[in-house]
């Protein structure tokens, strides 16, 4: 372009028409997420998403719960593999499962997708995954933003983030104040690494062990890339079902920091959670990361979920119905520990014993 030619948004690298095309492609997927409180209100393309708050009249004192999160460096693997329709599941899971921890029902989400260059089909695939995740979570995708940042990101680079809102009755908020000595700690199996610790995983498997995403791994029965892109399990509807059928004192979403650190966040002063490693066997991917990088067990446990994605703390008398409810919903769950007096323990939760073989 000559210096006498006028500059434009397109010459700066931003393609508005491609953005419009992406919006058209994603509309059918967003529509699939509509709850009754959203149907018929505005639509994709407006400046703000709308939600009919009159639905909250059924609550005596509704409290809104809000959470925001991203997917971290897992997006780099999606980019390298050219697989874009699963990363949205991860985003939804990271947001709504933080919301449900306090007992709140997720209502709606918004997303933010930042790209170096808008590839309409690629953006639509990302939104497809987010929409599918919202369906699994029982919430609506009411809006979002796709931003094109040429010069800041490479043409194939992208990142995603999201925010969600839920509602819970004030006198039904779950948390540390409900937990009592003798409560059981129920673990719910994860679908794999979920969306935490990928900086460590990538460093260990690629930089140190020299593995490739296309490499077949016998323990997985599939390629390494397929294993690493396994979507985060979304527990929100399972947790809400558990609240309806059993007495639940608290949930803990096992994300960054690992099981012990996240469980400690809901254990009150004076009490202690003990989780017995011998009650489960972590999936093969956790063993691979540990072996390939000679990562100490405690380092693994404070970085990865080690096969447990969500914890429920329930009174002893609710254990059987809680496990039955989760089993009916296809969630592999087990009693992994208990709540005891704190004693001389320095932290609110710890793992004991050795993992089952």
Q: Which shape, going by the Cα principal axes?
A: globular
The fourth-level CATH homologous superfamily of the largest domain is PurM-like C-terminal domain
SSE pattern, N- to C-terminal: HEHHEHEEEHEEHHEHEHHEHEE
Q: Under CATH, the topology of the largest domain is which? A: Phosphoribosyl-aminoimidazole Synthetase, Chain A, domain 2
The figure for the number of domains is 2
Architecture of the largest domain in CATH? Answer: Alpha-Beta Complex
**Side-by-side strand order of the widest sheet:** 8-10-5-11-9-12
Number of helices: 11
Q: Work out the number of β strands.
A: 12
Radius of gyration: 22 Å
- End-to-end Cα distance, whole Å, is 65 Å
> β content, as a range?
15-25%
Alpha-beta classification: alpha+beta
CATH class of the largest domain: Alpha Beta
Instruction: Give the biggest sheet.
Output: 6 strands, mixed
Low-confidence stretches: none
Q: Average pLDDT across residues?
A: 89
Task: Describe the secondary-structure layout.
Elements: H1 16-31, E1 62-70, H2 74-81, H3 87-99, E2 105-115, H4 120-137, E3 140-148, E4 158-169, E5 184-189, H5 198-208, E6 216-217, E7 222-223, H6 224-228, H7 236-245, E8 250-253, H8 258-264, E9 271-276, H9 284-293, H10 297-301, E10 308-314, H11 319-328, E11 333-341, E12 349-352
Parallel strand pairs: 2-3, 9-12
Antiparallel strand pairs: 1-4, 2-4, 5-10, 5-11, 6-7, 8-10, 9-11
Helix pairs in contact: 1-4, 3-4, 5-9, 7-11
List keywords for this structure.
single chain; 357 residues; alpha+beta; 60s Ribosomal Protein L30, Chain: A; Phosphoribosyl-aminoimidazole Synthetase, Chain A, domain 2; 2 domains; six-stranded mixed β-sheet
